[in-house]
Amino acid sequence: MTAELCQWKGSFMSAYVDLSITPRVEAFFDSATNTISYVVQDLDSLACAVIDSVMDIDYAVGRLTQAGADRMIDYIKRHGLRLEWIIETHVHADHLSAAPYIQAKLGGEIGIGAEIITVQETFGKVFNEGTEFQRDGSQFDRLFQDGDEYSIGGLRAYVLATPGHTADCMTHIMGNAAFVGDTLFMPDGGSARADFPGGDAGVLYDSIQKILKLPDVMRLFVCHDYTQNGREIQWETSVGAEKRDNIHVGDGKTREEFVRLRTERDAQLNMPNLMIPSLQINMRAGEVPKDDDGNLMLKVPINSL
């Protein structure tokens, strides 16, 4: 047991922290959406999990392909791994999930935060979905509650609810690694926007503070990186680095300061290019909706987003 782990015994998050375990993390960068997906392996077995996979879309012509997902599948097969989980940290609004495609090839359970039902209810109205669209999260195999535990082989994983960007955002902690989705970016990138329906800058600040209460040496893996100031792509940081250097929450910034900064920043941002297809597909666990004739079909709501 490390000294830092000992210090955390008795804290409300002590059950989540075991810095002596270092899972193998392989990152896959999608340049079209600046998304980083991960394969996380339990070193004591061949079990693994996929986190935040990407399905490719040529939106101009409505064509879906799976080159990015195939790279992850090839990696898993080449290393003889057994896929047990396909994790979505939240319903992404800027890229499409490849979860059902990967599941069909390799198996595994698809998991997301239980507040997916709130997201489904919100965007079910936006896209005028009929009663055939279930708003109970049943499209997913597992709905995670705050504090839930699951296993990847012998690797114990824990789930923290970290809403604010979306209602269903979750952080997944595995040994000395935590996968924060869009809740935090690299220190020079700050944090995710909080102006989508169901988002809340104050709630996002509170969620970030939960993450920053983890040990300073905890590795944090982000879902997006936008190469601030032309630097190389990065996806791994730490709690200590975020507490010290994050431009939105570092150096002891208050909740009031963050909410003001985040609100002003969000007012300047355009909607993500792939928001319309992403929400419709991702709230269905990666399945593309169909029209009455069974054809794959997306809707474009006018003046609703």
List the helices and strands and how they pair.
Blueprint (H helix, E strand, L loop, with lengths): L2 H6 L15 E7 L4 E7 L5 E5 L4 E3 L4 E3 L1 H12 L3 E6 L11 H8 L2 E5 L2 H11 L15 E3 L4 E4 L2 E7 L8 E5 L2 E5 L19 H12 L6 E4 L13 E3 H7 L9 H12 L8 H8 L23
Parallel strand pairs: 3-6, 6-7, 7-8, 12-13
Antiparallel strand pairs: 1-2, 2-3, 4-5, 9-10, 10-11, 11-12, 13-14
Helix pairs in contact: 5-7
Characterization of this structure:
The protein has 305 residues and is α/β, with parallel strands linked by helices. It has one domain (23-274): Metallo-beta-lactamase, Chain A. 25% of the residues lie in helices and 22% in strands. The protein is built from 8 helices and 14 strands. It has helices spanning 3-8, 67-78, 99-106, 116-126, 201-212, 239-245, 255-266, 275-282, and strands at residues 24-30, 35-41, 47-51, 56-58, 63-65, 82-87, 109-113, 142-144, 149-152, 155-161, 170-174, 177-181, 219-222, 236-238. The protein has a 6-stranded mixed β-sheet with strand order 1-2-3-6-7-8, covered by helices on one side. Helix 5 (201-212) packs across helix 7 (255-266). The longest helix is centred in the first third of the chain and has 12 residues, at 67-78. It is globular and about 55 Å long.
